[in-house]
Amino acid sequence: MAILERHDTGPVAHLRLNAPERLNPLSDAMLAALQDQIDALAHDRAIRAVVISGAGKVFCAGHDLREMQAGRQAEDKGAGYFADLFARCAKVMTGLTRLPQPVIAQVHGIAAAAGCQLVASCDMAVAAEDARFAVNGVNIGLFCSTPMVALTRNLPRKQAFEMLTTGRFIHAEEAQAMGLINCVVPAEDLAGAALDLAETVASKLPRAVKIGKQAFYAQAELPLDEAYALAGHVMVENMLERDTSEGMSAFLDKRKPDWSA
Question: Residues 193, 164: contact at Cβ < 8 Å?
Answer without folding.
Answer: no
